[in-house]
Amino acid sequence: MSSDERLAVAAERIASALERLAPPPAEPIDFDAAEAFVWRPGRLSAFGAPPADRLDPVAKVAGVDIDLLVGVDRAREQLLENTRRFARGLPANNALLWGARGMGKSSLVKAAHRAVNAEGGRLRLIEILREDLPTLDRLLTLIRSADTRVLLFCDDLSFEKDDAHYKALKAVLDGGVEGRPANAIVYATSNRRHLMPRDMIENERQVGLHPGEAVEEKVSLSDRFGLWLGFHGCGQDQYLEMVAGYAAAYRLDVAPERLRAEAIEWRQTRGSASGRVAWQFIQDLSGRLGRRLERSDEAAGR
Question: Which of 64, 74, 157, 254 is most solvent-facing, going by the fewest CB within 10 Å?
């Protein structure tokens, strides 16, 4: 075998090895496969091959119906109307739901998505994790050519010191050179109004060479959300209203006096009152009663 032939064989072996290392070509996204997806970005290979990104369909989205979210009436109506407009192809705002933990921020996003689709909308929900925000531009490339409208959802969003992930989100909210796709909108939830810890912002004021500019850089992300919805802690009366609403919807046959007494005891052992605590109590109560948490057609239509 001549030297040229040996080189040709070696080159063919190298090419075959590289093909085996490279990920398979990405399959077209079937947005009819489910109403919700989770973004799973691929990682770069050792040879720099394109990452194998994918959207995993979610068979059933966890959450409660929108009519069961008590005590957040104004936020509920605003987000629902914003989502309806977006689903109809009308102008709508990116939304930041911020405030007290356990008061239904993420539940409201999922419930609004479900409600709009129940009304005949064709809206897809895609959840993206905070640590995957730097890959958001790749996700938008997939969405841009889709013939459906997409709600991008980032839950429990916050950033710590030296965390630069927020810059990727700022570019998307601002639109960048290409502009945010007209068929995509961003909803995020956070316990922090400005998405940054207060001590981090205060530290910028104290030690920054140009403290005003440094603070503006950190808090400007939240300003890029056109719709701000605040969620605040609830008192005992509102908590009991949540419990009663869940009990009625799921047909839990419990005397009102017993329901109230056990709900208060549950709240006291938890040391707080919120929609999450109310739901956890209902789960415990239904388990003790031997009942599954399934809404009847009559209760679901009220």
Answer: 74
Query: For residue 251, is it within any domain?
Result: yes
Three-class SS state of 59: coil
Going by C-alpha positions, the residue among 72, 80, 94, 186 that lies closest to residue 133 is 186
At residue 15, the pLDDT reads: 67
Residue closest to 135 by CA, chosen among 161, 122, 149, 154: 154
Report the pLDDT averaged over residues 234-252: 93
Query: 87 lies in which domain range?
Result: 58-230
Helix ranges, the chain (H): 3-21, 73-87, 105-118, 136-144, 165-174, 198-207, 211-223, 236-249, 256-270, 275-289, 297-300
DSSP SS3 for 302: coil
Please enumerate in sequence order all residues whose Cβ is within 8 A of that of 290, keeping only pairs 6 or more positions apart, or say none.
none
Per-residue pLDDT band for 47 (boundaries 50, 70, 90) equals low
Task: Give the CA-trace dihedral at 196, 72, 243, 246, to 10 degrees.
Answer: -110
294 in the same domain as 182: no
Please tell me whether residues 193 and 219 are part of one structural domain. yes
pTM of the model: 0.80
Q: Retrieve residue 157's tokens.
A: 């969003």
Q: Provide the 10 A C-beta neighbour count for residue 6.
A: 10
The per-residue pLDDT for 301 is 35
Specify the CATH number for the domain of residue 214. 3.40.50.300
